Amino acid sequence: xxxxxxxxLPGKGIDLLSNRYEVTVGQRGEFDRESRLLETIGSYxxxxxxLSNPVSRKVLEAGQNLRIVSNxxxxxxxxxxxxxxxxxxxxxxxPDVLTEATADCAFALLxxxxxxLRDAESQLRNGGFDGWxxxxxxxxxxxxxxxxxxxxxxxxxxxxxxxxxxxxxIYYHNRNRLDPQxxxxxxxxxxSSIDELIESSxxxxxHCPLTPDTKHLINRDRLSRMKSGAIIIxxxxxxxxxEPALASALHEKQIxxxxxxxxxxxxxxxxxxxxxxxxxxxxxxxxxxxxTRSRMSALAASSIISHLSGKPDHAIPALVFQRxxxx
Length: 327
Ligand code: GLV
Hints:
Elements: E1 2-5, H1 13-18, E2 22-25, H2 34-40, E3 46-49, H3 57-62, E4 68-71, H4 81-87, E5 90-92, H5 99-114, H6 117-125, E6 146-150, H7 154-165, E7 169-173, H8 180-186, E8 188-190, H9 194-200, E9 203-206, H10 220-224, E10 231-234, H11 243-251, E11 257-260, H12 271-274, E12 279-281, H13 290-308
Parallel strand pairs: 1-2, 1-3, 3-4, 4-5, 6-7, 6-9, 7-8, 9-10, 10-11, 11-12
């Protein structure tokens, strides 16, 4: 059987596959073009894709032998899941294994923005550190602040645990309310109105999947109703925020800052974000730790092995993505 891995991966995933199948590994970025996937996919039984690969209906239809698409990511908005279902192609993702790394990244962005680390560090590097002074880079402290979490899946909950450790007040909105026991454990209060959550939060952290419902969830109107001084963190998906609207809100100092790991048209970053004050920008590195990426690679490969061998391994979380709760 033949497996296409769209680009080199860390960890043991490719070895696990190569021990059993004929494996082709693409070049970095090669399969970010739909046309490359279309002309290649025809002879493969399995595809190990990355989130930058557009696994469209056309691609799935061209994969006449394709039985599984295993995405090296927890998000799977790059895959036409409806088409996969219709065509009987299984879709797998990599939940759980990246939860803590992604929550760390979101919290790092929060601390960085709250304490203005980017500007402070670059002033020092540019030779501008002329000694301690009372007004040097005054930031915002997190202690006691009200954090609003949108999307209380695994990563949202892991972010809440970190916020709790910083003695923040935790509020959240989610499609489904958590069990009272989970709410109690996280010390998190449910807010049924997303607008109320947005308007009342000092910090807003996004952890919802990208769906037609969450596209531009944070729009110009909602940004205008955020507290002045509020900070917004996005480690979910870029299109959840209307980027030009966020850039204007930052330039006009309607809000206090933003920390972003994801963008609407990756790898492009809106030029007005690059010049916006107190905006910390990372190149989509939420899950980028050696440990996590190794686990993701093994999990993505195991999903393929399990499916192609016809021996479903129930120890593998979310082998069939439909069974997993989205992050
Ligand atoms: C990263 O963004 C992922 O979805 O895993």
